[in-house]
Structures are given as structure tokens and as C-alpha cells.
């Protein structure tokens, strides 16, 4: 007769408890806006290679609306999915509900604050809790992919163009460009354009951002251009869709 001792947590036999991971598959920490040196990191090895999903949460501890002006809190996670000696890197912006999946046998995740002051009078030092957990299984099939937002609103004067870099080697597969006027008035036809260009700034594709939700990042594209063909200042926001 086999002797099976009971554990104190759930009353299950030690012999029946399947250990699926070693290391640290979850963690949480209080971070502070403007402090890029303080990070949350986890690393885990899974006994069975497969599809795993990382889940993130974000909870402010200080008011995000009290005066003076609050610098918008921005948080990023760098995820390294590792299998068979190969590493696939992903980088995502964290909001509540962010999740991303990958195929791996090991994973390493580092979460850091990337808040950038906007304007002359801003408040940094906002405290918030951030957590990450990795579990077996695929991410839900959502229309919106994990995102990476590297900048806040981009203001472009009438008749000008803005050039930005498309993130490389982090899984950026699509781009979403939102555009508005400061007063909220409608934008005329062909008043704004988006182009994707290669490293020699040869155009690979150009379109009106109002006609698309997500547009694919074209092969060979290294930069994007935002054209303001209108007689007024336009405000652009650029978000990248990340594979996973």
C-alpha cells in the first residue's frame, strides 16, 4: 500500500500534485513614475514547452488627476520567450487587462516605468502597483492586439511632416494612427496622410489614417511619416500592434 501524505493547503496527495514550473512565474511591485531604475522582474522555466500567456495589471496608489499637471503614467514590459536556445523578444505597453502569449520553455519579463514629462510643469513621483502572472494556455482571441505606445500626442503644424521609427525586433506587426484637431472640428479629405518608408526613405505605402483601423507594418519598413496637409495644426497618436 502506497503512503500518500496530505498537503495542508488543499488536502491533496503530494504524489498527485503536478509541478508545472520552476522559478518565479508571478510577481508584483510598487513602481514610481519617472523612476526608470526600479523594475519588476520575473523568470520561470516550464517543465513542458508550450503556449503560455503573461497577464498584467496596473493599480494607481496616488491620484492621477490632482493639480498640478500630472505626467501620464507609461509602463512597459519586455518579454523574452525562450525555447531550444532561441529567444523571441516582445515589448508591450501595460494597461489593465494587458496580456500576451508566446511559445516557450522559459520566460523572462522585466517591467519598468517609462513616463516622460510633457510640458514645463508636470508632476512625477506617482506611485502605482503593477503585477504580472504567467500561466499555461493561449491568450483570448481579441480584435485588438497587445500594444506598444512609444509617445504621447504628436502635434504637427500645418504643412509639416513628422518622421518616427517603427520598433524593430519586438514583434511590431501593425500600426494604428489616430488624428484629430485641437478644437475637434472635422478633418477635410486628404488633409492627413501616413506613409511607411524603408531605411533609404523610399515610400512603401501611403494611406489616409481615417480609412483604416489597424494597417499592417510592411516588409522592409523602418520608419513612418505623418503628413499634415491641412491649414491647421493636427494631433496624431501612434500605436503599434504587437504579435502575441
Can you tag this structure with a few keywords?
Jelly Rolls, seven-stranded antiparallel sheet, 244 residues, mainly beta, 16 strands, disordered N terminus, globular
Structure description:
- It is built from no helices and 16 strands.
- The protein is mostly beta strands.
- The strands form three sheets. Strands 1, 2, 3, 4, 5, 6 and 7 form a seven-stranded antiparallel beta sheet that branches. Strands 8, 9, 11, 14 and 16 form a five-stranded antiparallel beta sheet that branches.
- The protein is globular, with a radius of gyration of 22 Å.
- The N terminus is likely disordered.
Quick take:
The protein is an all-beta fold. It contains no helices and 16 strands.
How many beta strands in the DSSP annotation?
A: 16
Structural class assignment: mainly beta
| Outline | globular
Strand content: over 45%
**How widely separated are the two ends?**
48 Å
CATH topology of the largest domain: Jelly Rolls
Task: Give the number of domains.
Answer: 2
Average of the residue pLDDT scores: 85
The tally of helices reads: 0
State the helical fraction: under 10%
CATH architecture of the largest domain: Sandwich
The profile of the biggest β sheet is:
7 strands, antiparallel
CATH top level of the largest domain is Mainly Beta
Order of helices and strands: EEEEEEEEEEEEEEEE
Tell me the radius of gyration: 22 Å
What low-confidence regions span 5 or more consecutive residues with pLDDT below 50? Answer: 1-17
Amino acid at each position: 500500500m502506497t503512503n500518500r501524505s496530505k498537503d495542508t493547503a488543499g488536502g491533496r496527495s503530494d504524489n498527485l500534485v503536478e509541478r508545472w514550473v520552476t522559478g518565479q512565474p508571478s510577481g508584483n511591485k510598487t513602481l514610481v513614475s519617472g523612476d526608470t531604475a526600479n523594475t519588476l522582474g520575473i523568470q520561470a522555466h516550464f517543465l513542458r514547452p508550450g503556449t503560455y500567456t503573461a497577464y498584467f495589471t496596473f493599480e494607481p496608489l496616488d491620484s492621477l488627476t490632482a493639480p498640478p499637471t500630472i505626467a501620464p503614467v507609461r509602463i512597459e514590459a519586455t518579454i523574452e520567450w525562450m525555447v531550444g536556445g532561441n529567444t523571441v523578444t516582445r515589448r508591450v505597453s501595460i494597461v489593465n487587462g494587458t496580456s500576451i502569449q508566446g511559445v516557450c520553455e522559459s520566460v523572462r519579463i522585466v517591467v519598468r516605468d517609462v513616463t516622460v514629462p510633457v510640458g514645463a510643469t508636470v508632476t512625477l513621483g506617482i506611485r502605482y502597483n503593477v503585477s504580472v502572472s504567467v500561466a499555461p494556455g493561449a491568450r483570448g482571441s481579441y480584435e485588438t492586439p497587445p500594444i506598444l505606445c512609444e509617445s504621447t500626442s504628436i502635434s504637427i503644424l500645418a504643412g509639416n511632416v513628422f518622421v518616427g521609427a517603427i520598433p524593430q525586433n519586438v514583434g511590431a506587426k501593425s500600426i494604428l494612427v489616430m488624428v484629430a484637431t485641437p478644437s475637434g472640428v472635422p478633418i477635410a479629405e486628404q488633409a492627413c496622410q501616413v506613409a511607411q518608408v524603408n531605411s533609404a526613405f523610399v515610400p512603401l505605402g501611403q494611406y489616409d489614417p481615417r480609412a483604416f483601423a489597424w494597417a499592417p507594418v510592411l516588409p522592409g519598413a523602418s520608419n513612418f511619416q505623418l503628413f499634415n496637409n491641412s491649414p491647421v495644426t493636427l494631433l496624431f497618436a501612434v500605436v503599434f500592434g504587437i504579435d502575441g
